[in-house]
Amino acid sequence: MSLNIFWFLPTHGDGRYLGTSEGGRTVDHSYLSQIAQAADHLGYGGVLIPTGRSCEDSWLVASSLIPLTKRLKFLVALRPGIISPTVAARQAATLDRLSNGRALFNLVTGGSPDELAGDGLHLSHAERYEASAEFTRIWRKLLVGETVDFNGKHIQVKGAKIIYPPIQQPHPPLYFGGSSEAAQELAAEQVELYLTWGEPPAAVAEKIAQVREKAAKHGRTVRFGIRLHVIVRETNEEAWAAADKLIAHLDQDTIDRARESLSHYDSVGQQRMLALHNGTKDNLEIYPNLWAGVGLARGGAGTALVGDAQTVAARIKEYAALGIDTFVFSGYPHLEESYRVAELLFPLLDVAKPEEPKRIGNIKAYGEIVANDFLPNTAVSES
């Protein structure tokens, strides 16, 4: 099985150390362009763009980088409860068309309760997943060309439709990550690829089995991916020294403050990440070559694969054997590490090499839309 290897755009900041401004970098359009173009050149299949108030807007970042890349796909966030499914479908179709089919979408249901409240979302954990399921059902139907009437508990639309379809049919792939029962049910019913954060293989295997079983009840199959940091060097000693260096400026007070803040999240996945380390710099290797040090200062994905190229490649293959075909990697700083990961790991793995998409020749030329709608009896030509 060929592996899809993605990289990460650090729109919330980047640097050589965690938990300090020392060695930090200005994350501006020039720097993000360098990372995206490096990933495109090196053969990564796509880039994940994070979302949240500490990040630059993922849609605008993707839109600005599409013209600067040729093959790279952009995984951007859909935020149920913050935007209507009809507007989100229209945006998704637009991004897919303008990128010539290089748009992917990441359904993000949770986050910081304070941040969600600031965005006007005051639903409980269970209610957010109810709303996300309604959102996704509408979003998918719109993108396959249906006119939608929907009267749900959280969302109501009447006569919803989009005029310009996406290039990817029936719709661009939908990614999603979540560890709760409700999240797994949503993934089983609605998404193409289920993402997990990096936990020991046994825990990952358990989640995969649970989602597969739930998907089978819907008559569906789901692909699987994993989100991990990577610290790979020519020797194991160099790699572990680099891991130690990454948190060299991270003091206990900063660790405690981060842990306190993250403990208030109602995300099951975030609580699982916190449980992997003891809130100190001690005993962070939670499985051979799986290191929980990143989670001491960072929310979300908090583990890294650490070791020489052969060792890290073996761990990647161990996850792949569980059924994972997509790996979303990152490393600090993200520009240099994109090269290091590609140069050291790609030769040891069966990496799916993306090709530059050909221009689609059968997109309809609609002409000017009449009366805010497409009228089927108006002239339509094939370009």
TrEMBL record:
Gene3D superfamilies: Luciferase-like domain. The keyword Kinase does not apply. Keywords: Flavoprotein, FMN, Monooxygenase, Oxidoreductase. Residues 5-325 form the Luciferase-like domain. It catalyses: an alkanesulfonate + FMNH2 + O2 = an aldehyde + FMN + sulfite + H2O + 2 H(+). GO terms for molecular function: alkanesulfonate monooxygenase activity. The keyword Oxidoreductase applies. Its EC number is 1.14.14.5. Pfam families: Bac_luciferase (PF00296). It is an enzyme of class 1 (oxidoreductase). One of its GO terms (biological process) is alkanesulfonate catabolic process. Belongs to the SsuD family. HAMAP family: Alkanesulf_monooxygen. Catalyzes the desulfonation of aliphatic sulfonates. PANTHER family: ALKANESULFONATE MONOOXYGENASE, ALKANESULFONATE MONOOXYGENASE-RELATED. This is Alkanesulfonate monooxygenase. It comes from Lonepinella koalarum.
